[in-house]
């Protein structure tokens, strides 16, 4: 995207970026827009937590587990392992990481441990991600 501002006396060029259309042709900061957006930005700690959330989502096995759990009420490790075609040990390891990230919760019943999505937000994350990916197909 190229920015065009009238009445600008100073500007700088980055030849490669300008040719690729990745930057403005001139350097200009719209202070009103910057101030407006700055007031809406979250703090560094919150954004760090968000990055950690996306890291947890950045593994295809964990996504498969979340996708599977989004279609059932709750499933035990054995059920999940059978559904995604992995060992119980591998699934259990990934579930531990998902629990730490607060994406899944567990419930123990006797010798069985059942897992489900932590809340509706997780289901929406999976659904929105799938919608975004599938719109390109």
Care to describe what's here?
- The chain is mainly alpha-helical and 137 residues long.
- The protein is 54% helix and 10% strand.
- The chain has seven helices and three strands; from the N terminus they run ααααβααββα.
- It has a three-stranded antiparallel beta sheet with strand order 1-3-2.
- α5 crosses α6.
- It is elongated, with a radius of gyration of 23 Å.
Summarize the SSE layout with pairings.
Elements: H1 15-20, H2 31-38, H3 44-57, H4 60-69, E1 75-76, H5 77-84, H6 88-100, E2 104-109, E3 112-117, H7 120-134
Antiparallel strand pairs: 1-3, 2-3
Helix pairs in contact: 5-6
How would you summarize what this structure contains?
The chain has helices at residues 15-20, 31-38, 44-57, 60-69, 77-84, 88-100, 120-134, and strands at 75-76, 104-109, 112-117. The chain has 137 residues and is mainly alpha-helical.
Percent of residues in beta strands? Answer: 5-15%
The number of domains = 2
Average pLDDT rating = 88
CATH superfamily caption of the largest domain: Winged helix-like DNA-binding domain superfamily/Winged helix DNA-binding domain
- What is the CATH T-level topology of the largest domain? Arc Repressor Mutant, subunit A
CATH architectural arrangement of the largest domain: Orthogonal Bundle
């Amino acid at each position: 995207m190229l920015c065009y501002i009238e009445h600008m006396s100073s500007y700088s060029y980055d030849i490669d970026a300008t040719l690729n259309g990745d930057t403005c042709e001139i350097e200009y900061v719209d202070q009103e827009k910057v101030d407006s957006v700055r007031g809406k930005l979250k703090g560094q700690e919150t954004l760090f937590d968000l990055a950690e959330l996306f890291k947890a989502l950045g593994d295809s096995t964990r996504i498969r587990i979340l996708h599977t759990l989004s279609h059932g009420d709750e499933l035990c490790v054995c059920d999940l392992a059978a559904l995604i075609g992995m060992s119980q040990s591998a699934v259990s390891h990934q579930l531990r990481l998902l629990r730490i990230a607060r994406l899944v919760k567990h419930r123990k019943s006797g010798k069985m441990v059942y897992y489900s999505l932590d809340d509706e937000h997780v289901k929406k994350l999976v659904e929105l991600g799938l919608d975004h990916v599938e719109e390109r197909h």
